[in-house]
Design a protein that fits this description.
The protein has one domain (about 5-105). The N and C termini lie far apart (about 35 Å). It has about 110 residues and is an all-alpha fold. The protein is about 75% helix and about 0% strand. This is RNA polymerase sigma-70 region 2 domain-containing protein.
Length: about 110
């Protein structure tokens, strides 16, 4: 695996070990790990923003990615193939109208 993938795995594992308590300290720890994850994937987010021509709504695209990342973290299971989470993120982007539909890509 790549250095980035290893770092993502560590951050997600750290988030998953934080108790679900609603106190400020635990929320701050989760937020810190989520911010690191977003920093790690920022180059990919920018890449897909350019590829899909979303430069005029880059902030919205980044927010949609953050929502997809949050959902992927909640559903994360290290046992199955990671491609499931990539598909989930792509589906979330399409549902938000931030990515072309599958049929549009091949038209």
């Amino acid at each position: 695996m790549s250095v980035t993938t290893d770092a993502l795995e560590r951050e997600v594992a750290a988030i998953r070990t934080i108790p679900q308590d609603r106190n400020a300290r635990m929320a701050q720890r989760r937020d810190r790990h989520c911010a690191r994850i977003m920093q790690l994937i920022a180059p990919r987010v920018r890449h897909f923003t350019r590829v899909y021509g979303l430069l005029d709504i880059a902030d919205d695209a980044e927010q949609a990615c953050a929502i997809g990342v949050h959902r992927a973290i909640c559903d994360y299971d290290p046992a199955p193939c990671a491609i499931h989470h990539v598909r989930e993120l792509a589906t979330a982007l399409r549902a938000a109208g931030l990515a072309p539909s599958r049929s549009a890509r091949f038209a």
